[in-house]
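ARCHIVE CARD
CATEGORY: sequence design from structure
SOURCE FIELD: tokenized fold
FIELD CONTENT:
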């Protein structure tokens, strides 16, 4: 049951990332905390690692880009600090 709940939460996060990035549009980015707050307003901090994990997967698939200070980060690199999520179509 626990695995099913985790998989469901990951799916919700993934859907939220894709929806927010698409809604923001090309050339614009989304903060991962926006995604976490949308999914769990009262417990968003606990979701930050999952949001980053799903962002990494989406970046590997080419669905989004992850940036830091305007530079695209490789999906498999070690990320430190603030990141932003954007459309891969804007690059």
């Amino acid at each position: 049951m626990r695995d099913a709940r985790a998989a469901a939460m990951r799916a919700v996060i993934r859907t939220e990332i894709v929806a927010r990035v698409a809604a923001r549009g090309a050339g614009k980015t989304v903060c991962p905390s926006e995604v976490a707050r949308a999914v769990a307003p009262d417990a968003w901090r606990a979701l930050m690692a999952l949001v980053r994990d799903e962002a990494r997967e989406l970046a590997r698939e080419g669905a989004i880009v992850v940036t830091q200070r305007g530079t695209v980060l490789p999906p498999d690199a070690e990320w430190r600090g603030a990141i932003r999520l954007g459309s891969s179509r804007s690059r």
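CARD ANNOTATION: The helical segments are 2-24, 32-39, 48-61. The chain has three helices and four strands.
SHELF: design records, drawer C
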